[in-house]
Amino acid sequence: MVGTALGLSLVLLFLSVPVFLVFGLGSGLVAIFGLNLPWSTLIQVSFGAVTKHVLLAIPLFIFAGLIMLRAGVARRLVALAMAMVGHWPGGLGVAMVLTMGFFAAFCGSILAAITAVGSIMLPEMKKSGYPPAFSVVLAASAGLLEALIPPSNAAIIFSSLTNVPVSQTFSAGILPGLVLMVLLIVVVMIRGRAFSRNERAGWGARLVAVRRAVPSLLTPVIILGGIYAGLLTPSESAAVAVVWAAFVGFFIHRELTFEGVWSALKATAVTTTVIFSIIAMATFLAVVLTYTQAPQHLTAYLLQYGIGPITFLIMVGVICLVLGTFIEIVPVFYLTVPIFMGIALTMDVSMLHLYVVFTAFAGIGLLTPPVCVGIYTAASVANISADKAFPQVPLFVGVGVIYGVLMIFTPWLAEWLPSALH
């Protein structure tokens, strides 16, 4: 039954059927006609999945990030990064990576971050002689920081699937996110030696950039501080982030307008609809897995052949890498986590370690054709054809694979900070 559901889903996927319908039709038909389950069971499970309290944080974090974007935050963060590292080799590229990291700390949307930062940095990099293809793929690669550095939609979804506290999943992504940032910066500095550099900013200019960016830099402190101080749940922290973003936009930066708020609301509604439609339909596959006990059978099979934790994680990485080439990271989570979660528990693999490995390899899908939504988004911002950026993809995919392998063999990067905060 599971094979039939997956086979039908793959056929629909290759026919370019929207992902939520792939889940709904493939698994729904098997559940109804193969397992003789009533529609009411599927609807109840689906409704329960989308009404989990923890998922309320997703639209709120997205909304907070979009408000901050319209409040001029991205421009101030870029100015801060440029003042600090613009004179380094590849300084513009380094500044873009750092700005993506900063922006990740209060924005829940990868594509919004690529658009916000890329619209400022990509034209500047082109003027300074950076190859547009290199800049586009770098922007798409840096977008993965959004999936690791909290608040992260990927972390919230993983927690909803595994019942791991969101606070732990958030903190598990911080050190791996910083490691990825360092790897990207090293690549940019090596490649950037041939590009022009900015003049070193004076300390006065740096202090001005810091002062202008302070309200933005306080946002992650407010978001994460409330959670780890035990004062706020993730959903409450997201609501506070929205209020703080509106306050910054209206009263500090004074660049946010009611039209901008309405635009952010509409964009949030669109993004949230896409995510929650996938969540609702993906639960149909979870029903099929539950009734057929496929995860238990797969666990027994792997244990029978002596598969160890490292081999298992390598297998997970390869599967996520392949799936991420064809579908986005959210459906990859719903397709794979319910299957491999039980295996990981049986093999004493930490859920937090599993989360980082999942995210590392599935996130490479931002770069790999044919889906590569990160490259398409960055290319549209840079006003170039996406296929012109593809020659630079192998370099950054190689960096991503190296990073993923590093995550497999260094579980402490995912586990140390949650343990220390706990």
UniProtKB/TrEMBL annotation:
<feature type="transmembrane region" description="Helical">
    <location>
        <begin position="329"/>
        <end position="347"/>
    </location>
</feature>
<dbReference type="Pfam" id="PF06808">
    <property type="entry name" value="DctM"/>
</dbReference>
<feature type="transmembrane region" description="Helical">
    <location>
        <begin position="265"/>
        <end position="289"/>
    </location>
</feature>
<comment type="function">
    <text>Part of the tripartite ATP-independent periplasmic (TRAP) transport system.</text>
</comment>
<feature type="transmembrane region" description="Helical">
    <location>
        <begin position="353"/>
        <end position="381"/>
    </location>
</feature>
<feature type="transmembrane region" description="Helical">
    <location>
        <begin position="213"/>
        <end position="231"/>
    </location>
</feature>
<feature type="transmembrane region" description="Helical">
    <location>
        <begin position="301"/>
        <end position="322"/>
    </location>
</feature>
<feature type="transmembrane region" description="Helical">
    <location>
        <begin position="54"/>
        <end position="73"/>
    </location>
</feature>
<keyword id="KW-0472">Membrane</keyword>
<comment type="subunit">
    <text>The complex comprises the extracytoplasmic solute receptor protein and the two transmembrane proteins.</text>
</comment>
<feature type="transmembrane region" description="Helical">
    <location>
        <begin position="169"/>
        <end position="192"/>
    </location>
</feature>
<feature type="transmembrane region" description="Helical">
    <location>
        <begin position="129"/>
        <end position="149"/>
    </location>
</feature>
<feature type="domain" description="TRAP C4-dicarboxylate transport system permease DctM subunit">
    <location>
        <begin position="7"/>
        <end position="413"/>
    </location>
</feature>
<keyword id="KW-1133">Transmembrane helix</keyword>
<protein>
    <recommendedName>
        <fullName>TRAP transporter large permease protein</fullName>
    </recommendedName>
</protein>
<feature type="transmembrane region" description="Helical">
    <location>
        <begin position="393"/>
        <end position="414"/>
    </location>
</feature>
<keyword id="KW-0812">Transmembrane</keyword>
<feature type="transmembrane region" description="Helical">
    <location>
        <begin position="237"/>
        <end position="253"/>
    </location>
</feature>
<dbReference type="GO" id="GO:0022857">
    <property type="term" value="F:transmembrane transporter activity"/>
</dbReference>
<dbReference type="GO" id="GO:0005886">
    <property type="term" value="C:plasma membrane"/>
</dbReference>
<feature type="transmembrane region" description="Helical">
    <location>
        <begin position="6"/>
        <end position="33"/>
    </location>
</feature>
<feature type="transmembrane region" description="Helical">
    <location>
        <begin position="93"/>
        <end position="117"/>
    </location>
</feature>
<keyword id="KW-1003">Cell membrane</keyword>
<dbReference type="InterPro" id="IPR010656">
    <property type="entry name" value="DctM"/>
</dbReference>
<keyword id="KW-0813">Transport</keyword>
<comment type="similarity">
    <text>Belongs to the TRAP transporter large permease family.</text>
</comment>
<dbReference type="InterPro" id="IPR004681">
    <property type="entry name" value="TRAP_DctM"/>
</dbReference>
<keyword id="KW-0997">Cell inner membrane</keyword>
